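W.,

You were right to be curious about this one. When I first looked at the sequence I had no strong expectations either way, so I just let the prediction run and decided to look at it fresh. Below is the sequence, 88 residues in total, followed by the output.
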Amino acid sequence: MHATTTATTLTNAVRSALASREQSADVAVFVPFVRLSREVVAPDGQVGIVKTTFRFDGDLVLLRGFGKAADDLAALANQARHEGLTVR
């Protein structure tokens, strides 16, 4: 499979898996790594990013590491909200 096709397929699979968890994130694929990120905004308007990365092992069915990465990102987003930031 061509690298661009692999990245697109992987991105779509990760977005679908996030949606099934009622989560969302920006998904960036840098084979073999996948980064999940969310933008956070401080009350003064400063923008930052919370992110986590997992290694794609080549198995779209299992997506090993995805669950932990999604949980980590959710925890980072919750922490940002607790600190008074807006998570986009």
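Here's what jumped out at me. The beta strands are 26-30, 33-41, 47-55, 86-87. And, maybe more interesting for your project: The chain has two helices and four strands.

Coffee later to discuss?

I.
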